[in-house]
Amino acid sequence: MAFLGISGMQYSGEMFAGARIIVAEDSNVFTSMISKRLKELFDIDVEICRSFEELQLSYDKSSDPITLAISNINLPGAENGEALEYLVDLSIPTIVFTGTFHEGMRDKLMAKDIVDYILKDNIFAVDLLAESICRFLTNHRHHVLIVDDSATARALLSSRLKRYNFRVSTAENGAKALEILKANRDIGLMITDYNMPDIDGFELTRRIRSNIGSHELRIIGVSSSSNRLLSARFLKAGGNDFMLRPFIDEEFYCRVNQNLDTLLQIQSMRKERAVA
């Protein structure tokens, strides 16, 4: 199965017929479109719940874990967001699919640690939803290393990445990062702070690039500094991207996705050349 997402995501691999996905949505138009698209793309038979009561019954009727839920904010019987609260309380990974959106709503959604949110305000909404689902179902393929001397910063980034279903390792300094990279050659992305006591982010990147190229490992630098020249220095040291803190979840996830998409594209091209 081959899939090309709107944002540039490419997936070529097995279908996800074993995934249990619940769609909590009362619109017949959208439930039909979602069901058809996910079956066509990924061979997924979704469970449709058109009310809060149906959602509760769907959860109670089977002991099989729910892989992912797609939920509108408001459902019949849960007009004040109770369905989303229910899913979050059960620790079920959830993508919100909604036509109601404003800044305050966005802040409330992100505070609930949802996987993603997709707006129903364009003709590509179902395709964007399909891509978000595909990313969640395949992100476990990616191993990400976080390097930061701040335990709080490591925990925050780790929690964000795990929410999206990535495998995560952490290092409290540059020396530990080099050790982890040597023992885990499957790590495809490293996110490193600039200001660290033993080996700063620049030096760490330089040392890594002497052995590991961008076709094997993407590197994103982060910093709380207001010095805008840090990005230039980091890129010249061999980094692939740079972000200034504080950054919002959507920007962070987009940058992570873009770098991993690029990594997979480079690796695919190298394999094709090797075969040719």
Automatic annotation (TrEMBL):
Please indicate if the UniProt record lists Transcription regulation as a keyword.
Answer: yes
- Modified residue annotations for 4-aspartylphosphate: 193
Q: Which CDD domains does UniProt cross-reference here?
A: REC_2_GGDEF
Query: Which keywords appear in this protein's UniProt record, sorted alphabetically?
Result: Phosphoprotein, Transcription, Transcription regulation
Annotated protein name in UniProt: Response regulator
A GO biological process this protein is involved in?
A: phosphorelay signal transduction system
Q: Which SUPFAM superfamilies match?
A: CheY-like
